[in-house]
Write a structure and sequence with these properties.
This protein has 16 helices and 15 strands. It has 440 residues and is of the alpha/beta class. The strands form two sheets. A nine-stranded mixed sheet has the order 2-3-1-4-5-6-7-8-9, sandwiched between helices. Strands 10-11-15-12-13-14 form a six-stranded mixed sheet, with helices on both faces.
Length: 440
Amino acid sequence: MKKFKISVFGKIVRKGVIYLAKTVLKKQNPQVIGITSSSSEASTKNVVAHLLENEFSIRQAYGNQNAEIGLSLAILGIKSIDKSIIGVIGICRIFLREFTSKSYPQILILEYGVDSIGDMDSLLEIAKPTVAVVTEISSTYYEFFDNLNEIAIEKSKLARAVVCSNNNEICGVVLNGDDSSVMKVQKDLICPTYIYSTNKKTTFYSTGVHLNFHDDVLHGISFKINYNGNSVPIRLLNVIAVHQIYPILAAITVASIYKMNMIDIAQKLQSYKPPVSRMTYLEGINNSMIIDDTFNASLESTESAIDSLSNIKAMRKIAILGDILELGKISDEGHEKIVKKIASKKIDFVIFVGDNFKIHKDILLEKDFILDENLFFCDSPIIAKRIIYGKIRKNDLILVKGSQGMRMEKVVEEIIGKNVNLNETVCRQNNFWKNVKFSK
């Protein structure tokens, strides 16, 4: 959780909101599904909500509400906070409504975001989970930790906070069996543990994953979900990347804990759409296609996005990548790894945005890339969109990705098709973000 300077009045409001949220939780006693991950909290939250929403009364955190104040606002059902006297009055009114409500949600689906030691303790003081989901532990916030083990220890606190009592039939911990750091969380857990994976015999596991093409056009992904000796086909019509299966598997596991039928789960997943700018497939100018993954970036998610670009059929493949921020001391190593990943794939045209990729340009020059012809380095997404705009051809496939601070959605805004609604399909389109200028 980022630490910002807050006024005295702001600190009072913040403490007040947290207190009101804890009071509502104590009174209403909903079940809490707590999700933590290095890069897929929001995606997992959205799939879980999609599966449970018509079976239970639920509330999911809005947007990126994963810090203390965001978690508290999610509990109160508030999208954002106005730290004025009028705003405080509005919060108090909402508190009274939620505190006295006879239709408060049965289930809260909350994100637990951590980027430094002690963050999880602060979040657990507000809300302890009934079901804890740990999906991935990676180097996303290495800037604030000394090593990966410290990240694992911090995130494992969510799982250890789950306490199952005799009268609490629904409870447990859901873990990604393909992530060795996540699996360390399993040690010494006393509550039921459910493990999902790909191609391993765990509680739930996928097999036969493949991309569905029709006339060389991608139409989603299919796989089989295996559990208790049974196998059910899953069709994801709006998912284009193999690594997007992990949030799906986590959500399937959670839905099963809540006794949902697997056939019903499979049917619901056909209509699932990923959150905006998280590996979404958009129509671009000149009959091109865009893979918009501009919401944020980690080292692992960037590697996966490049794999997806490589796997999808296209006449020409273009990667426009912004710096991966918050890698801390492994930043140089991480950006070199991404450049080598690009060099190992059949990528035809590359634009790098920011400072961190430039020092590794020789890796691509040795692979017959030509500077300022099919390899470009620039300082901002504004320059990147000017470079690419006149170079897009019919049937090009364009991956756009970078950390939130790189504002790579500005590139997507420029090259998106005329018939696509920006507000519904691309991240950071509200007035707040429109007024935030890109700065290195």
